[in-house]
Amino acid sequence: MINDLILIIAILIINIFFFRVFIKLFLKLKIYDEPDFLRKIHITNVPLVGGMIFILNIFLYLLTKIFLIEISFFNGFREIVSFLLGAILVFLVGLYDDRYSLKPNTKLILIAIIVATSVNISETFQVNYINFLFYENTIYLNNFGIIFTIFCFLVFLNAFNMMDGINGLSVTYFLICLIYLVLLNNNLNFFLFLLLPAVIFLFFNFQNKVFLGDSGSLLLGFILSCIFIKFHNEDYIYADQIVLLMIIPGIDMLRVAINRILKKQHPFKADQSHLHHLILKKYSPKVSYIVIITLIGITALMSQIFTSKFINLSQIIVILIIYFTYININKSK
Predict the structure, then answer these.
(1) For the chain, what are the domain ranges?
(2) Most buried in the list 72, 109, 127, 325, measured by CB within 10 Å?
């Protein structure tokens, strides 16, 4: 207990130091988000430090694992290499995009190559079969496992990236997913290196002092994807639980991407057609944030509390009905 408390205090102190240092450094390096008063309504340059903070915390965890922590979150060297290589490369692609801007197709191809390389190192992060809570039989993907895995990563990374539209939304969503996963696994040490930086990030983010940037949103999407798949393969979580947690950013990304394609636009071109943007047209950013996070939080909580086989499937259906009803109401006005 005392050791855990010391670890928590140490992580907090180190991360506050990280934020202070990298806020200044990223402003000097011009890795920041400039206001355009259209899509971006902040009034000053905001450093995109999110990715740097979280990648440093991954390294911190690995250092403490070597010297202090006996129980590892990862099973073996190949699993560590697979996760770490993917995380670093995804972060670097995002960081380059934050500074110089990558074309959407280039970024998509790079991410696909990184994911394919990473998951081939360790089967822990491959989706080779699917288990649903409401369906007793296991669905085996056989030769399609790697392709389906890459597809899942790309969908969720882009969905998470597109969710990063108003302060606090994507990182609070990240926190909800982490807390849900912590309740399924007792290895708290690893999660502390993600939970605590996320809380500190929100403190600065709500003050418009830091943003995630593509380096942060892509990295957090990659981290969650890896943990979801790892926990599914280790029988901690069912596929319908993962779909439930991912349904709002996932369906929003798919809807927006399809609409853009129908308009002969690039599916990942930035615009203001996401769910949080639609809510923003009538309400404040605070209301938009509260509505989306409350919906995600309540469904996650109900999934943990109720033991019915169909609790996740029924909630997914309800969310889809609410989502498309709201979208159609907005279209008709």
Answers:
(1) 2-332
(2) 127
* Closest of 190, 178, 206 to residue 290, by C-alpha: 206
Residue with tokens 């991360």, as numbered in its chain: 15
Radius of gyration (C-alpha) of the chain in whole angstroms:
19
Exposure pattern of 50-75 as b/e (b: 16+ CB <10 Å)?
A: bbbbbbbbbebbbebbeeebeebbbe
Distant-in-sequence, close-in-space partners of 296: CB < 8 Å, separation ≥ 6? 173, 176, 245, 248
Of 226, 224, 223, the closest CA to residue 126 belongs to: 226
- Secondary structure of the chain: what % helix, strand, coil (to 5)? 70, 5, 25
CA distances from 120 to 68, 86, 112, 146 (A): 30, 11, 12, 8
The answer to whether 206 and 286 have CB atoms below 8 angstroms apart is no
Cα 101 from Cα 108, distance rounded (Å) = 13
**Residue listed under structure tokens 């999110």:** 50
State the CB neighbour count (10 A cutoff) for residue 14: 16
DSSP class of residue 333 equals -
Does the pLDDT at position 243 exceed 80?
Answer: yes
- 65-111 pLDDT tens trace: 877 766 678 988 999 999 999 999 999 999 999 999 899 899 999 99
